[in-house]
Specification:
This protein is an alpha/beta fold and about 350 residues long. It has one domain. A hairpin with a 6-residue loop joins strand 3 and strand 4. Helix 1 runs parallel beside helix 6. The chain is globular, with a radius of gyration of 20 Å. It starts with about 25 loop residues before the first helix and ends in a 6-residue tail after the last helix.
Length: about 350
């Protein structure tokens, strides 16, 4: 934050704390040399659980487009936070919210659960063991918490989109292949398994990497290692690894042979952003922003445009949707964030 004033009335001001550049220098280095967009507004209409659903599925809507309640969003964390997803069955249910964000209500579906059968970026919303032909992996510290988005998608958790196995642990139904093949957990001996993929050149086409609390920048946590964690991953992607026999140091297989885009996001409200002017405590210069940065306000989940099959956002990409996919096109998350950003920050909704 650019020395934002805090008058002491905010209950939890952790997200608005000022951070010295030296404390997060890797982020400034990455942004200055490689960044291309920094006007990112929150897309999720809720906290961490919904944020990770947006990262994995492009929405926190609890049902597929055109189904009943398809205009509404899951809007709260499950309680307790360490127990979340399909394995929780029909208990500890988070609330939903309508598109205006003003009307909260309980799960309206006949079968109420922390389990939401709809498309993700990499799995289908119907059938069994249905992938979209894209190799993918989700690295996460724990199996069934609010940060582990696939745990709330039955296609990944159980290998099918029905809710027949509610209450069972992910990976226990239908052979568990969808879960076991794609969700990689941190262990006591391997605290960051993403580096195994970078070392052995097994990085899939789309990869999500979720740090544990020690390596996280999450507001309210006391760890200082988030910038180093992110910087190490970026270095391994762009510069290779010393002991790798395929991702050589200095050449970087995933930078030269297989060019890779890296999206760095924080789960609550798109990150603690500083591009909206607030009353400064004292006049202070704003941080230098590289000329290649986009100043267009965008939703934090807009990165999905770069990796989705392209049918999600009509009239924005060249690839035309198939007849089957055209019926499932859904632009609600993008429209919602543009409208809310326009109202809140007085910016153009057409940005």
């Amino acid at each position: 934050m650019d020395k934002v004033c805090w008058n002491g009335t905010v209950i939890n001001p952790a997200c608005y704390a000022y951070v010295y550049q030296t404390d997060v220098q890797p982020y400034f280095d990455i942004a200055t040399n490689y960044g291309f967009a920094n006007y990112m507004f929150q897309t999720n209409e809720g906290p961490s659980f919904e944020a990770h659903q947006f990262l994995f599925t492009g929405t926190s809507a609890g049902v597929a487009p055109n189904d009943n309640y398809s205009l509404d969003f899951v809007a709260e964390n499950a309680v307790p936070n360490d127990d979340s997803g399909c394995s929780e069955g029909q208990v500890n249910l988070p609330k939903w919210v309508d598109p205006t964000g003003t009307n909260e209500f309980h799960d309206p579906r006949p079968t109420k659960a922390q389990c939401y059968p709809h498309d993700s970026l990499v799995t289908c919303g119907t059938g069994k063991n249905c992938d979209k032909g894209v190799s993918w992996a989700y690295y996460t510290p724990t199996p069934e918490t609010i940060w582990t988005a696939p745990a709330a998608i039955p296609e990944v958790c159980y290998g099918e989109n029905d809710l027949n196995y509610l209450g069972q642990s992910c990976g226990t139904a239908n052979g568990g292949t969808e879960w076991k093949d794609h969700v990689f957990l941190q262990t006591q001996s391997d605290g960051a398994p993403i580096f195994d993929a970078l070392l052995n050149c097994t990085l899939p086409q789309i990869t999500w990497v979720i740090p544990d609390k020690v390596w996280s920048d999450h507001a309210g946590l006391t760890g200082l290692y988030g910038p180093s964690y992110v910087g190490d991953i970026v270095d391994a992607v762009g510069g290779g690894m010393a002991k790798s026999s395929c991702n050589f140091t200095g050449s970087g297989k995933y930078w030269t042979q297989e060019p890779t885009a890296i999206f760095i996001l924080w789960d609550d409200w798109g990150g603690c952003f500083d591009h909206v002017n607030r009353p400064p405590c004292t006049p202070a210069p704003r941080h230098r922003v590289p000329p290649m940065f986009s100043r267009t306000a965008a939703a934090a989940a807009m990165f999905t445009v770069s990796v989705c099959p392209c049918w999600w956002f009509p009239n924005t990409l060249r690839r035309a949707p198939s007849p089957a996919n055209a019926a499932r096109r859904d632009t609600r998350p993008v429209a919602s964030i543009r409208a809310r950003s326009s109202r809140t920050f007085t910016i153009s909704a057409a940005s």
